[in-house]
Amino acid sequence: MTSTITVEHLWKVFGPKPERVVGTELADLPRAELRARTGCLAAVRDVSFAVEAGEVFVVMGLSGSGKSTLVRCLTRLIEPTSGEISIDGEAVRAMNARRLRDLRRHRVAMVFQHFGLLPHRSVLDNVAYGLEIQGLGRAERHRRAGEMLTLVGLDGHENQYPEQLSGGMQQRVGLARALAIDPAVLLFDEPFSALDPLIRRDMQTEVRRLHAEVGKTLVFITHDLAEALTLGDRIAVLRDGDVVQIGTPEDLVGAPADDYVADFVRDVPRSDVLTLRWIMRDPLDGETCEDQPLPATTVIRDAVPRILRAKLPVQVVDGDRPVGVVDADRLLPALISHHRQVPA
Amino acid sequence: MTATATPPTIQPDGRVVAVAGEGAAPWRRGLTRRRVLWVVLIAATVGAYLGFRTGGAADSDDAAAFRFFTDVRNWVDENRDTSPLFLYGFNYLRLGVRLLVDAVQAGLYGLGFAGLVAAAGAVALVLAGWRTALVAVGGFLAFGFLGLWAESVDTLVLTTSAVLLAVVIGVPIGVLAARVNWVSAILRPVLDVMQIMPTFAYLAPMTLLFLIGEPAAVIATLIYAVPATIRITELGIREVSPTTVEAATALGSTSRQLLTKVRLPMARPTIVLAVNQTIMMALSMVVITALIDAPGLGQNIIRALERVNVGAAFDAGLAIVIMAVVLDRITTGAARRRPAAPARHQRPTAANGVERVGAGRRDRWRAAGGRNRWAVAAGTLVVVVVLAVLPISEDLPHFSFAVPVNELTGWIELHWYDGTEWVKNVVSAGLLDPLEGVLTSTPWWLFVLVVAGFGTMASGVRAAVIAALAAAGIAGLGLWQHAMQTLATVLVTIVLTMAVGIVLGVWSARHDWFAAGLRPVLDAAQTMPSFVYLLPALALFGASRFTAIVAGFVYAFPPVVRLVDRGLRDVPAAVVEAAVSAGSTPRQLLWKVQLPMARGGLLLAANQGIVMVLAMVVLGGLVGAGALGYDVVAGFSQREDFGKGLAAGFAIVLLGILLDRLTQGFHHAKGPR
Amino acid sequence: MMRLRTVASAALILSLTACGGATSGAGESTPSAGAKGTVKLAVNPWVGYESDAAVVGYLLEKKLGYTVEKKELKEEISWQGFETGEVDAILENWGHADLKKTYIEQKKVAVEAGSTGNTGVIGWYVPQWMADQYPDITDYKNLNKYAGLFKTSESKGKGQLLGGDPSYVTNDVALINNLKLDYTVVFSGSEAAIIKAAQQAGAQKKPLLFYFYEPQWLFAQEKFARIKLPPYTAGCDADPKKVACDYPDYDLDKIVSKKFADANSTAYQLIKNFKWTNDDQNLVSDYLTNQGMSADQAAEKWVNEHEATWKPWIPAGS
């Protein structure tokens, strides 16, 4: 299976004469020192990854880690300094203005943190904007935009104006606008960080539902670990422009690549993320187990009632093949582990 | 210059609510019904016009209003030395102003040539940094090189006096207006009148009350400039963050402490901006006061005008532009300068680190400047004193642009004439004549009704009533025909100004190099006294309404360009990014996103344009546009036309109020430039 | 250059407060009559006047030792200056019966100081080339025949008669009505506008019918032909609405402030004696406008070459 998006050795350096940084010894300097010496800021440093079709790929990092720059480089809203980007096998950096516009019009759509809605247009016309600039007729684009509003649950708000909607509803408009052009790839730039926590959860659910329904490739930028873990098939952790780790939520929580990531995931309730695979042990010789085995992909929390009620260890299977066993002794440390941050 | 600024209103609970948002929704919902109403209104107007149009009888020379004004004049003339109003009022005002002018004059002349140049540099250095100081020194030296030193200092004396008075009077009134809503409400129409009243129209009453000479000139300048001081100060105080005020109140500040420790310091940059605008306006008025015996560069310009010597006028005009640029750079520099201390504590965050890199260096420099500022000031003071004592004369080698400018204009006049004649004829026959024909043949009562009807639709009942009253007032002044002719010229000028202004503004917002190149042109067009470019315009377009249109255009397009540029640049980056990300072409971005979103800015530009074009109407009277402008000029020149001239001045004010109220509904929130 | 006044006006204000009320003359410098002091000449906005002022000013300064202050003022404003002491003399007055009545008869702040010797001529003119090309155009009876030539964007389909500065005396609108001419008056609004138009009419051969007057420096540069209107007879312009005759010739005169005259200084006497011809004035005007001389240079040149003319102006014993 080919990747929808591949990024190789991507650099973005802001500041005077940025091209002199990449590929020289300057590139190896820590961020602060580079800035002191050259006045340049390396926002994205030698980043490589691939996003598979239909995958939800999350880029996570604190503010200033370069994640928003990274996502903007994908469609060259920010021009990268060096490196390769290809979408559907086509090199983005080689595209001329027209080709790039086609990419943005038809294949890649973006949802923004601050919505970016046009205050002078009705909700319907906002959603239809992408279709309008493609040159689609009024009736047709309104029909499609109406469908999209239904899809995001905004029926009946067509003729309102963005300022009359709540933040959550405005972002649904942003979402509908992105979906309206039926893109293969959706880019989300911290779309929910400006929303209230409750609304944020609704919207995350919404994104998961839409992903299930329309099956797009999603690149999702966030600084919220919980959001990353909830949504991401795979997560890239960014720090000062460097990719620290790319992996599944389980990889991050279970096997953080370094202290930075470990520190990050310390508060995460491990039992919510890790599967039995992470706590099973090899069966003892001649050990007897419960009759019903549990699949290795079961999240620990979901297995808690079974294991605690069982008198014997429970067998863990991958398909039909037994891979290990779990019992209450293995379970309990995983359940309480996230309390470790309490000062000793 | 500022138009009427509608400040945000403050709710009883202390929240500040911008007026803009409210009422937006019903407006949009009722769209179709409104459309029907518009159509009905237009049809009714056309029907009524066809039914009732008149032959357009010429205005009489003897209306009740004219006689009234003449009677007032005669009374003043007779009682100037007997009425207590003069003995204890106006005459003292004149004396007081005379005293101030004398003091300022003694001060500036006392410094001598070298001393004044150094003083200008020192002030600029302390207030705005060394670059501005260089500009200031260079500018003041240029007065000497142009051979216009004494005239320039005279102009500076008058400007300084008027600005001092404007600040002393305007800032407290502005603060009061910001704090007490009814004061603001009462002031607003008064300031409107002061700003729209054509400068020529003030001059006649000025000489009536204060005779001729410097005091009358300073007072006329003050009247012209002080509205800017008051309005921008008021805005600055109102803009102070309510959160900060709340926090200070929570700490137990008295209202006096709130004012002196919170509101005034926080509004400081805006108040400095107010001073800046006051200076700019004062400078443009001081030139015109040469007509009532004020000394300075204005005298040179008027003398050059009499001899039809564009080049000589250009030299003096250039000196004015230089003075405006120097004063502008110093005051904007002072407004931008932040209090020195906090600069060091602002740690750049990584997100905006890029632009902070450069800013950080500046901050350090500023912080250092802050510590050393008083040392620098003391040092330069010594230099100034030494230079003031040294007998260095202003007798520099002279440079004059008179000859090349005359040759250039001569060439242009000779070679461009056919083209300009064609443009003039097309605009006059295609646009101006039909419009003037319709307006002048409309009976005044129908016009009042139409203003009321359309005004209600566009701007609400209140604005419409005021506009209709203004229209009726014009009819009452007995200058209906002339007012309608002037209105036609004004409307055509605004349309042309907006068309060109928007094109240039869009370019300027899109290309920084273009904006940078345009800026000095705009500065010059705004500060170069209009008398200077009147002659070439006359040569190209003849004595005609179109020449007045050209003059109005040159005067009004800079703020239009600036506001359009600002409006486009103020479109939130997030929205532009979203539109680009959706694959908009630059053209789509402009038409579908930037222009619609900059609508407020565009309408503010139109409103500003109207005020500025009206200011040039009188000047149009000097170049063949006739109508109200000519009436005002005639009233200033001929004793028997005094009443008519003053009435024409008021008619222009009423036209201004009418147009302002009609355009106001489109955009509620207005502010200074 | 602005004169530096002492800051004595402060004391003045205080003293005035004590005795109650300030009159309109308060605070202004006292008229300089008498001692060799300052003479304040109003300079009205046309170059002919400037020529008078240049020569009179030059003589006052160089021959009599006065300081001369010139004030660029419109006519009306100059008269106001008599009242405030800002103006000592107006050197070329065109009629202004109304102002004479107010300031000389009623307010008694000014007096007449005799003729300048110049004759003011007002009339309608066309550029010389038109008179050459259409010889009969200079008779008003034939003007309607040529109305088409004078059409402009401003003249509403009729011929255009370009009017002058609003300060000047005109009967143009009445003349056109009463002589049944197919013309409209377009008010140029300023002298500069009319001179510019006249210059172009000559230089670029453009038809122009305009209100103009002599003496005027432009005549030293360019030739213009005067249109013959029905001749002036005494009283034919009594009713401004029924005027159907040409403008009268004006005897241009001098007006001085009463205080200045009463002091009877040598300055006053020189101004009273000042009298020259239209040609004299046009010559100095030509120096000023076309030869780029300053007022002093022009006056010096003329004074050096015309001693016989100005010698008699200098009061005896000075």
Describe this structure in words.
- The complex is a heterotrimer of chains A (344), B (673) and C (318).
- Chain A is of the alpha/beta class and 344 residues long.
- Chain A contains 14 helices and 13 strands.
- The termini of chain A are far apart.
- The N terminus and C terminus of chain B are likely disordered.
- Chain B starts with 8 loop residues before the first strand and ends in a 9-residue tail after the last helix.
- Chain B is 80% helix and 1% strand.
- In chain B, 52% of the residues are buried.
- Chain B has a domain of 297 residues: MetI-like fold.
- Chain C has two domains: 146 residues, 3-Layer(aba) Sandwich (D-Maltodextrin-Binding Protein, domain 2); 131 residues, D-Maltodextrin-Binding Protein, domain 2 (3-Layer(aba) Sandwich).
- In chain C, strand 5, helix 6 and strand 6 form a beta-alpha-beta unit.
- In chain C, helix 2 crosses helix 10, helix 2 crosses helix 11 and helix 10 crosses helix 11.
- Chain C: Pfam families: OpuAC.
CATH A-level architecture of the largest domain in chain A: 3-Layer(aba) Sandwich
CATH class of the largest domain in chain A: Alpha Beta
**Unreliable segments of 5+ consecutive residues of chain A:** 339-344
Q: Strands of the biggest beta sheet of chain B: in what spatial order?
A: 1-2
Keywords (chain C): Signal
GO cellular component, one term (chain C): ATP-binding cassette (ABC) transporter complex
Domain ABC-type glycine betaine transport system substrate-binding (chain C): 38-305
Protein name (chain C): Glycine/betaine-binding protein
